Amino acid sequence: MFLSENVGADQTDGRLCSAGRHLSFFYAPFSVFSERTKQKMEKHWIIFDSITYAYQARDYLARKGIRGTVERTPDRLKNRGCSYSLSVGKQFDRAVELLQAKGLAFDTRQ
Amino acid sequence: MDYFDNAATTYPKPSGVLPALHQAVRQYGGNPGRSGHRISLQTAEKVYEIRKKAAMLFHAEAENTIFTSNCTHALNLAIKGLLKDGDHVVTTCLEHNSVLRPLHALSEAGVIRYSVADAMGEDDEILANLKQEITPQTKAMVITHASNVIGKVMPIREIGELCRSHGIKLIVDAAQSAGVLPIDMEQMGIHILCTAGHKGLYGTTGTGLLLMRETEPLTPLTEGGTGSQSNSLDQPLFHPDRYESGTVNTCGILALSAGIDFVNRKGISTLYRHELGLCRYFAEQLQQIAGITLYAPLPTPQKQVPIVLFNLDGISSMVTAGALDRGGFALRGGLHCAPLVHQKLGTQEQGAVRFSPGAFNTMEQTDRLIKYLKKIRKNHVNLLEI
Predict the structure, then answer these.
(1) Which of B132, B160, B193, B292 has a CA positioned 20 to 30 A from the CA of residue B69?
(2) Which residues contact A91 (CB under 8 A, 6 or more apart)?
(3) Measured between beta carbons, which residues in chain A are less than 8 angstroms from residue B214?
(4) Partner B, chain A 43-102, Cβ-Cβ below 8 Å
(5) pTM of the model
């Protein structure tokens, strides 16, 4: 993976304050980041504090036809220490939309 | 050796368990959820897949499925994590010390009060007894799904309704029922389900599960590294990280997965029919031997798990179990860590011998045991070790 100098382009930072269908008391935070590589390829991360939620999101999106890969969050994108990310391709916006629709709400900070 | 102590832990394990342990060591050696390299990630993914599988068995959500080291660990987390100062708890005389001791300890510390309802009667009586113990301070009921001593199956669905109607949380000890009886947490109104991984789920020892639904966050028993939110000194609020500080038992979890595969492949109802059939046959044969006391009705589907409790009259259960051991039969004597039910049975001194078959026991083995018990009763076996 080659990342550009343009780190943080289209970057948002969010924290989930309410959670999904059956999780009314729990936090499942995720935030989103995008980067543009030198080859003008976009790479997007949906960042989860918990690796379990990252895998859940991956499975859920796969059922909706969006492929993603769970990886450790790149160091420069972390703001609360260790976390895992779901790396998705061009369908990033749709992926975020689907996760939100599923009940994973989050606040964003541009 | 014919092994009939499956209520303590199932043995032997299904053929898939040993390869799973090998695979855990050979292929899944990374620390799950800690690092970014492929070995760690593939282990984390494997653990996640097994978490999903375990959750599915009980109709729970993967993120609310917590790996513990055994059922006692899960029950301690549920009880000590949920209950707060001034709370009241209702439990029953059938409970194992893994329920009674945490409750007693909290009570001794002045944190909670608890009441013990009689559960030796019919289901309607049990429900009435439980209802009678509810107070405005009652926060939870902690109830075994099935007694590890007499095998009685509790009316959990009805207890769930009772709890729901009073706004009470229901914690269920499923040590003897997971993998033996179908469990649907939602339909049965269970808020927290605790179980062992090494009994009816056929995993290895050192594994357990806590599954939760519609309950507030528990206070964790341990805090520490979770591989998440590492910048914060606060324990994460989200599941399962909140309750899984430190490296999880990957080897045990993979073995548990193989055990669950076995249960799913065979089918819970098939396994149950087989084991209960052996119990019924055993109990019927014992009824015909003079000088043997049985402590529960003949095993009946849905009313009992595969356990038969008995004694040779006038002989300590430990002596009987010792003689059986020397004769090539593994059964457990004593109090089975459930003292209150023995008080009810009047066996607190003698204890009792527990026959608990598993998936791999056969009618031939059961016949051998019956024959040996007959020999003991005819004084053809020296009961005392020389």
Answers:
(1) B160
(2) A66
(3) 22, 24
(4) 49-53, 55-56, 70-72, 78-84
(5) 0.90
